[in-house]
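S.,

As promised, the zinc ion run. Input:
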Amino acid sequence: MGLLKDLDQTGVAEIGADLHRFAGELFPICRSITGDGVRQTLALIQGKVPLRITEVPTGTPVFDWTVPKEWNIRDAYIKAPDGKRVVDFQKCNLHVLSYSIPVHATLPLRELEPRLFTIPAHPDWIPNRTSYYKEDWGFCLSHHQKLALKDGEYEVCIDSSLEDGHLTLGEYYLPGRSTDEVLISTYTCHPSLANDNVSGLTIATFLAKLLSGRELRYSYRFLFNPATIGAITWLARNREAVSRIRHGLVVTCLGDAGGFHYKKSRRGDAEIDRAAAQVLRHCGEHFEILEYSPYGNDERQYCSPGFNLPVGSLMRSVWETFPEYHTSADNLDFIRPAQLAGSLRACAAILDVLEDNCCYRNENPYCEPQLGRRGLFRSTGGEAGGQASGEEMMARLWVLNLSDGNHSLLDIAERSGISFPKIKEAADLLYEKKLVSLVTHGSDGAQAPLVAPSGAA
Ligand SMILES: [Zn+2]
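Predicted complex:
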């Protein structure tokens, strides 16, 4: 489809700066699984793409779960005996145990201590803790802050509300020629944590923008929902749309300096699994392919046995494995423009594979066609009159040889070791020269892609 090509015309440095700037807008918002932080986040994303917002009332049953009460917070602090705020929500929203019930009390330090969470191994960092499904309250602070607390009476205040309200879902649907869908899913429930998951929100938003206004083979559905309960709620309310999902990707933790990790779908051999592996193999960055496990993000819900959707997950460092995970050190310095841009490029390249993957048939299958007579020993991309590179020639030979109507371009890329865009370029050229024809059923049941030979210069 040429998403990657279009992206690269802008330049990686400029894209990286744009991505990081948007991440900076999303970062300060205090998000949780419900509440105004989610709404503010979706409003910012709506500035880029027109989301549809759905509010699902508290108490709504969704499979084995129930939509929880809505949580909102205005302020929170701990005041020392001298009246000074020693822990202040206004300075960092991680300071409050997320979903803390309202409290205003004065109590001695020893009674407060069990409600204070720190990370002794990283004494300057503030942890991020939650208590969604058990009513509780508490504060998170750096270990140094805690050690500085002297005996005495402390005033604690959490000006929050936990009441009947709504769970807020955000969705962006882009129709393509086929009603078969590609799902891109990310989560909106984390407060000021940059890699997990402001980076995922940013990448999904820019990817949606990149797809907007294009002629698409597939229809695309972008989900911006709170993790777990949001995905469960969406799945429970959208059974019909679910049946149209052909490929899916959960995007998260895509801004840190680590190499890529792709976690396969439960199926393990879905086209998305192969497309992601194919792109990462040729992306020039370190990468690792991980087998499916029922632990992780929303792929757990999409890949539950009742759905068993072909949904994998693209990350850089894997959640929980980096020390900064769920701490104040996962900040805007921890995510980098170049890595965000590289992540968007990888996502675009994966969608290019899905959009362009199809089967051709060699119209001249008895022995090799005479390529020289058709000018196919000449380079298409290089200087006029230059020889086709070894790889270009090999790509043409592979496409001719494997195009028996049963091998897709992705099959050919995998078997030849040549990147998908090079194989696609060869197929476009051979199509233009009428040496191959398109097999319309495609490898995945979706309508065939548009044929717009990029070799037709
Ligand atoms: Zn997380």
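The chain is about 30% helix and 20% strand. Residues 337-356 form the longest helix (20 residues).

- D.
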